[in-house]
Design brief:
- The structure holds 2 protein chains of 2 kinds.
- Chain A contains 7 helices and 12 strands.
- Chain A is of the alpha+beta class.
- Chain A has one domain (4-204): Alpha-Beta Plaits, CATH 3.30.70.20.
- Chain A is globular.
- Chain B is mainly α.
- Chain B has a single domain (5-290), classed as Formate dehydrogenase/DMSO reductase fold.
- In chain B, helix 4 (84-108) runs antiparallel to helix 5 (115-138), helix 6 (150-173) packs antiparallel against helix 8 (185-215) and helix 8 packs antiparallel against helix 9.
- Chain B is globular and about 60 Å long.
- In chain B, 43% of the residues are buried.
- Classes of the chains: A alpha+beta, B mainly alpha.
- The A-B interface holds A 37, 39, 64, 73, 76-82, 96-103, 106-111, 115-117, 119-122, 169-172, 175-176, 197-198, 201, 204-205, 207 and B 2-3, 66-70, 72-73, 75-79, 82-86, 89, 137, 140-143, 219-223, 292, 294-297.
Chain lengths: 207, 297
């Protein structure tokens, strides 16, 4: 693989977090470390139209893990060279080099690198590299009951789904060139007009 | 935002103060030879070289406290080609060596007199490189509140304010120097004026940047408020301390001609100004870390 990538369909995601749990289970992650997180986006309000009050309330979910970016900012800033990109395009952390300075966690706009208090080093999604070698998908993709996710070569996914836009809360992709294709939720257009909120901030903020 | 960021607050402030001390110490050599010769040397807490060495050692030890795996810190300079954090750690090493060289050369007093100015220039330049590299660590395009002109400006102001104030206090504390008439009031006078100008700049810069922060629309998922709560209270306290320190420094300059009449009282008064500055800079640096927010999630 040159550029492994995820596809995420925000219209199909129900926010059940099975992907998050499957990831924790497969990688035996300790409490507080979530390589994959589901962000619950909510917004809208009630407004008066004539004599009637109508609402434009909306909600959707975004499931995020490491984007294995083309231009990973974490790799550039890591002082120990613990973060590298292997021949399969997977951005990974070498635990024998990492000193746990958390600089990568500061800079990553996707909250991918996560500090493991038990080991004192940074950890992150490795795309279930062992599964990929066996020709399988990462566990988050295959565990999704809504089939909201797909995995494959970035160019193949673009051919299959088209180069679709990003949605809140994802940053502009020019910063790191993330390897993800997102099918935006039908209500994601509201975001441009109103200030959305992450309703499960307590759950995901320490990412 | 970040666990143990207090260790980074102390590391950055202490190392910048050391850089400032060495810059002003080097300047003293070229401006006022008489005073420079009278400054203590060797293992003396009033010797700038020894003091800076000691503070740098404490700063480095404190910086280890935010690491999850301190033993792996030997790998910290592996990525000089692209990581400013790696370069910052390299700059700490170079600066430490330069301060050690000033300390040793002044203690040994070698026959080659050029070694003294050479080591002082080396320490001043490596101090500037250190403050620059610390600033660069925080100029990250995914963190809008840090990726600003304010980061290098405030870091250099911290170095110069704490450096000039510490130098004045050091020269003052060398009571023996004054008694033997070595210290020239002109030098204290110039340093105090420099300090008051720096404090004026810092006050203006802080107010401008705070106003700019208030206008920034949040780019991340957190709703950060810079004009309410603890952040705003600390900002107001900091501005108040800056004004008070500036007023006291100007008063100190005004009273300088009568310094020999009540020398101990002058030392205590300037020590109070210095304490105010340490508190103000610590609040400022804590606020800098508290202003962290990134784009995305």
């Amino acid at each position: 693989m040159n550029r492994p990538a995820f596809y995420f369909d925000a219209n199909a995601c129900s926010g059940c977090k099975t992907c998050q749990i499957a990831c924790k289970d497969k990688n035996d992650l300790p409490m507080g470390v979530r390589w994959r997180r589901v962000y619950e986006v909510t917004g809208g309000d009630w407004e008066k139209q004539g004599k009637a009050w109508v609402n434009n309330i909306y909600a959707y979910n975004v499931s995020l893990a490491c984007m294995h970016c083309e231009d990973p900012v974490c790799l550039k800033v890591c002082p120990t060279k613990a973060i590298s990109k292997n021949e399969n395009g997977i951005v990974d952390i070498d635990p024998s080099l990492c000193m746990g300075c958390k600089y990568c966690a500061w800079v990553c706009p996707y909250g991918a690198p996560q500090f493991n208090e038990e080991t004192g080093i940074m950890t992150k999604c490795n795309l279930c590299a062992d599964y990929i070698e066996e020709g399988k998908n990462p566990t988050c993709v295959d565990s999704c009951p809504m089939r909201a996710m797909d995995f494959g070569e970035y160019d193949d996914l673009v051919l299959k789904y088209g180069k679709q836009g990003d949605i809140y809360p994802l940053p502009n992709r020019h910063h790191t060139e993330p390897s993800i294709i997102v099918n935006p939720h039908r209500n994601a257009d509201h975001v441009a007009l109103e200030q959305p909120e992450i309703s499960n901030l307590e759950e995901v903020r320490d990412a | 935002m970040h666990n143990n960021s207090w260790s980074l607050v102390l590391f950055t402030l202490l190392s910048q103060a050391c850089a400032g001390i060495m810059i002003f110490f080097a300047a003293t050599f070229f401006i006022d030879q008489q005073t420079f010769q009278a400054i203590p040397r060797g293992f003396n807490f009033l010797a700038p070289g020894f003091l800076a060495l000691l503070i740098m050692a404490i700063a480095v030890l404190l910086s280890f406290l935010h690491l999850g795996k301190p033993l792996h810190a030997v790998n910290a300079v592996n990525h000089l080609s692209s990581s400013w954090l790696s370069r910052e750690i390299f700059a700490v090493l170079i600066f430490g060596i330069s301060v050690l060289s000033v300390f040793l050369i002044r203690m040994v007093e070698p026959s080659q007199e050029w070694l003294i100015p050479a080591s002082l220039i080396f320490s001043a330049i490596s101090g500037i490189f250190l403050v620059t590299s610390i600033s660069k660590v925080y100029l990250i395009k995914t963190i809008p509140s840090w990726n600003s002109w304010y980061t290098p400006t405030s870091f250099f102001l911290s170095a110069l304010i704490l450096g000039s104030a510490a130098t004045v206090l050091l020269f003052f504390s060398n009571l023996g120097i004054l008694e033997t008439g070595f210290i020239t009031p002109t030098l204290i006078f110039s340093l105090s004026w420099a300090l008051s100008i720096l404090l004026s700049i810092e006050t203006i810069v802080t107010l401008i940047f705070h106003a700019k922060l208030l206008r920034k629309s949040p780019a991340g998922i957190e709703r950060i408020s810079f004009n309410t709560g603890k952040y705003n209270t600390l900002h107001l306290i900091r501005i108040f301390i800056l004004f008070v320190a500036l007023f006291f420094t100007l008063y100190f300059i005004f009273r300088l001609p009568g310094i020999s009449d009540n020398f101990q009282a002058h030392i205590r008064f300037f020590a109070m100004i210095f304490s105010l500055l340490v508190i103000e800079e610590t609040i400022g640096r804590s606020q800098f870390y508290a202003s962290y927010y990134r784009i995305g999630v």
